[in-house]
Amino acid sequence: MLVAFSAAHAQDTAPATGEPQRVEVTGSRIATANLESISPVTVVNAKDIKLEGVRSVESLLNNLPQVFADQGGSVSNGSTGTATVNLRNFGADRTLVLVNGRRLPAGSPRNPAADLNQIPVGLVKRVEVLTGGAGAIYGSDAVAGVVNFIMDDNFQGVQIDSNYQFYNHQQNGGPAADAATRRNFQLPGDKSADAKVKDISLTMGGNFADGRGNAVVFLGYKKEDPLLQSERDFTACSLGGSTTGDTFNCGGSGTSFPGRFLVGTRSFTVADANGGVRPYIGANDAYNFGPLNYFRRPSERYTFSSFTHYDINDKTRVYGEASFHDDSTVAQIAPSGLFGLDASGANAITFENPLLSNAWRRTLGLNAPGDTADLVIFRRNVEGGGRRDDLNHTSYRGVVGVKGDVGNWKYDVFAQVGKVRYAETYFNDFSVARSARALDVVPGANGAPVCRSTLNGIDPNCVPYNIWSLGGVTREALTYLQTPGFQRGNTSQTVQGVNLSTDLGEYGLKLPTSTEGIGLALGWEHRTEKLSLDNDAAFESGDLAGQGGPTKNVSGQFSVRDYYAETRIPILQKQPFADQLNVTASYRKSDYSTGQKTSSYGAGIEWAPIKEAKFRFSYQRAARAANVVELYTPAGLGLYDMSSDPCAGEAPTATLAQCARTGVTAAQYGNIVDSPAQQYNQITGGNTNLAPEESDSYTLGLVLTPTRNTSVTIDAFDMKVKGIIGGLPATTSLESCLATGDPTFCSLITRDRLGTLWALETAQIVATNQNLGMSSTKGIDLGANWNAKLGDWGSLNLSLMGTYLKEFKQQDLPGGDTRECAGLHGPTCGVPLPKWRHKVRAVWGTPWNGVELGATWRYVRGVDLDTESEPADASLGARNYLDLVSSWQINRNFTLRAGMNNALDKDPPLSGVVAAVFGNGNTYPQVYDAMGRHIFLNLTAKF
Length: 943
Hints:
mainly beta, five-stranded mixed beta sheet
């Protein structure tokens, strides 16, 4: 069972010789006979993984109360194609991921956090999760903690694992489904089995050279079917902040079909196939973009791993690791189109355009030849289908090393290399330049519509785009307008290191009150990180209409040299009121090629007045230097989410004087059109002058083991990250400018000629990277475990793991106001931060030979929206989930497992306002069980 107090186990399982085996635990480089870490470590073993019934590392970790939502298979709009882990909600780039104690390379040139898809889940022996800074032991990025995957690298035999999973869901109706019904949107029927997952793996291993060596090979294949939001009734329409009172309403995007034509402050749309015109009404005409979005992306993955070691003699072992993974996935979102095409100036609509009906000419004020009209056009390309982002990551990783003993010293000398190749092909987007040319239409020689650019020779291939009447768009026009985008890139990492450790007691260095000597570890490490991302002209120039702006090339590298030392001093052992009293200290100095230097250090103490009770305290100062993306990404246009522009609408919530500070004129005030999709423009980019972040982590805990079969842990944590690297939130700049008029903020804001912050590319708020304020969190982790023999009734294991989140504070600028996000979610606080989450599991080893039954109760407390809202959007209710599992060891070779997670088929909590990227389908599918009852079958054959 997952237990918050479990100690990490040996990284090396060499046999003991007479005295207790000394092993390393995650969070220390010193081998000791004590299997409990001073810092709290959660352990998930291979059996637990099988009982979970999930075949992805991201889902396994997301079930832990210490882990918060991040990139994964249920992210579509904004997906990087990777899966990442986010400890304590400090961000995936502040969580260090290790395999057998060594770091993974950057997962993607779009997202440098380690990609969990590289981990072969079928070969995982256990996962050790240490929360609290560990920078002094492992180096940069271990700000929030460490996730260490220990692989089964000493396997013997042949094992085949085959797995089949699917979702079963009954459409339960409810307020969101009612909203879709009122808009006459189609609702799906019940689903007996969808979103299927099939995977199979083969593990082979054996000893050689009379048992002096062992080699393990793992081969895996996995395929996941997609699930569209149209397949669940609560995502049949996008709520999109259109709630009134206690009633959900379908919202959507103002980039609609058959279009929204903004003429001055008035909006119109196409009425019929004859080119009729009528007013655009957002409540009825906003585009329902949800159904075509993937609720879970399809993927196909191939995995290979091998582990080999050979003992040259009793004191020397050589070892090697090699791994490969190839993962392809598609992130589909709603169709592209004209996202505010500026038809003014040279692009203005002319009287001579033969595609215009008389109704359109009257609406646009085109009365005679030579007249032109300025307007902004928003139109969805429903004829061409959804945008499909084809993402592929291929990784290669190798480790070679030698370790052993020289006298009383243990050594480990290693070198590793990792590389990730990235390829993206973005289909079905629109070319901005071609769109403008396709709308500039004049009569040809025979009076037929023709592009002006065809006649003047600028673009002979141009095809007129008839958006002025229903059914007017031709396949030839789509072929001309739709254009793919290509990205290619890679990340690479090389690491060389030396680790030394010893028990100084062998040299007489131990206290007379202790039976153990002083432990010492020393080490050196050199690491180089490289990253590059190359875009084609369509991406680089910003010509792809559906990207929100240009995607710039990124290229850069840095190297770092680390020196570290760690000591463990046993002070008292087997003394009155001190069965054990130890102190620890660690220090690491890092020297970066960028000119930055950092120091990380830590200290800890553990005191067991009696064997059955132990107190533990730790302090860690960790540092994180900026990664290549944060340093070298050129500035470019992107999008951010905001519930509304305070200066938009007929009755703005901000005064004219306040709005004038952001660039609103008196004529525009009360006439500015707000973004229906709640998306606005910002400028983001890197900064080569970034200073390293620093964090301070404190943990104080109590471990109780009153009996051999009972254990309880209580660990309080207090963590703070200062000088956070990121862009100053655009919402903060806007709010601060409105409230104070401070030019520090107001100078970052530019409105377009319409007064909006979103319609045209000239609208923007600068949010490039800088060292900002801080994030901090406090809370308590609770763990309990109890095992009992039931005689003729078998055995029973009960366990609990929970986290109480007392506070999670954010501060945008040093010395500025802080906001409390514990118990909240939304555009400002991000993913849900429930104040309490737990897992309670019972596993019954039945008296029937080889049969185990298990049940798990998962609980997520409700959260409130972090901004003022309508009552229906104000909170996401609590969720209780019941998971059931059974296991039958048929014989010594075959084991069958079956189970269901979310057995009661609970729908997720819903809101019309969710945070960007990880909010998908009116909820957070990376947090809640959003797709229904998850049924899984597993057959393991071992020979």
